[in-house]
Amino acid sequence: MSAPRTLTFFGGAATSTGSMILLEAAGARVLLDAGLFQGNVALSDAKNRALPLDPRKVDAILLSQAGLTYSGRTPQLVRHGFTGPIYGTPATRDTAAILLAEAALEIANEEEPLYLMGDVIETQRQFVGQPRHRPLHLRRNLVFEFAGAGHTLGSTSIELRTGEGGSHRIIYSGCIGRPGSILLPDPEVMPGEVDTLILGSPFAHEHHPMFADAQQRLAQVIRDTVARGGQIIVPASALGPVQELIRTIQALWRRDQIPEIPIWIDSPTDVCLPTMMRLHPDSIANAERAYGNDGGPFDGALLHYVRTDADRTALESRPGPAIIVAPNESGDAGRSAHHLLRCLGSTKHTVIFLAPNEEDSVGRLLQEGADEVSILGQKVTRHAAIETMTAYSGHADGEEMRTWLRGLVGPIKRAFVVHGDDLAVAMMVTILREEGVRDVIVPREGESFPF
Prior knowledge:
Layout: E1 6-11, E2 20-25, E3 28-32, H1 41-49, E4 60-62, H2 68-71, H3 74-79, E5 86-88, H4 90-107, H5 117-126, E6 127-129, E7 136-139, E8 142-148, E9 156-162, E10 168-173, E11 192-200, H6 211-227, E12 231-235, H7 242-254, E13 263-265, H8 273-279, E14 303-305, H9 309-317, E15 322-326, H10 334-343, E16 350-353, H11 362-367, E17 372-375, E18 378-381, E19 385-388, H12 398-408, E20 409-418, H13 422-434, E21 439-441, E22 448-450
Parallel strand pairs: 3-4, 4-5, 5-6, 10-11, 11-20, 12-15, 12-16, 13-14, 13-15, 16-19, 20-21
Antiparallel strand pairs: 1-2, 1-22, 2-3, 7-8, 8-9, 9-10, 17-18
Helix pairs in contact: 4-5, 12-13
């Protein structure tokens, strides 16, 4: 008699962060992602400290991408006894190495950090760069394969087959990217019958503007802010979807649609995405351009990097317009929180969020029109302009998700909807049912399901 097969949802369930799903099949215990909860500092910190399983009993981790909400918990699991392999594409492996190190630097001064730099280094030793479209057996009757998701550098959907002859097919995708990116290939589909689909849906309720329309709005926001003598704060990781925004700003300047304005990348390390892309040309839209001299996606114009504490001090006191990109995305902590503290109180400045933020986070409150927020324990009255530009989020909207679903051909026997707030999840459920999926489940944190 074969062992029972189950899926248990520890994160990304009824929330858009903390991605972590335990798959038990073929005698193996495998985590699909191991991400941090982010957003409201007190709530997310409490969740992150409560390990929901024994890391010593996990055999492997499969990462769909390098973002901290997908990979950020791996050093914590290693710290508490996980010794198995961590699989991701080579680009995910290298990007995660930077992001996890940055996270360790950010939390190093906390009274009880979740993990230390030594844990990050040990985590890097356990990483295995697994190319896309190269199946790998974890057990005799459990095999997985990566396919490009088009969301961030190296991001993937994960196909798993388990049972005799791979009789049960699972597809997991935490984030599907937008087609038409100037940097990344369009999301891939894996056509065929799907027994279990696990699908992230953070933007299923959105309808993104066309890139051309988004460019016009971005140009207007920049011109208005420059006219006020202000700065534009973009809470985002420098190794994530923000690069689409940066390339658009450079293109607008070269077409004389905006004035020259410096773009500062303020992150704990100064490794830049263009360098990472050149290391992984197979993960970008036009690999040949990685080694050309015509700029394009690798244009260095307007870019500046904060490399020392002196640079950071000078940036915070510099006069005149600038665009500042700084983590974290919600503005609750990290470098973005410091810039928000500095700029929110003035009508000169603008804050651009690339995505709707987690409920109760600083970013979400600002997006909902709050006149006052608390950042790092300080109350701040908001006078700065707030913009949300989802076209540059790197996430597919509802109709783009529908197109990807139709590419699967199907049929899809059962679907789990994860990674989204209530509105996004409800819309994704509607889309799935409209596309003929009859068994659609919205799991709650800690729920287990046989398959």
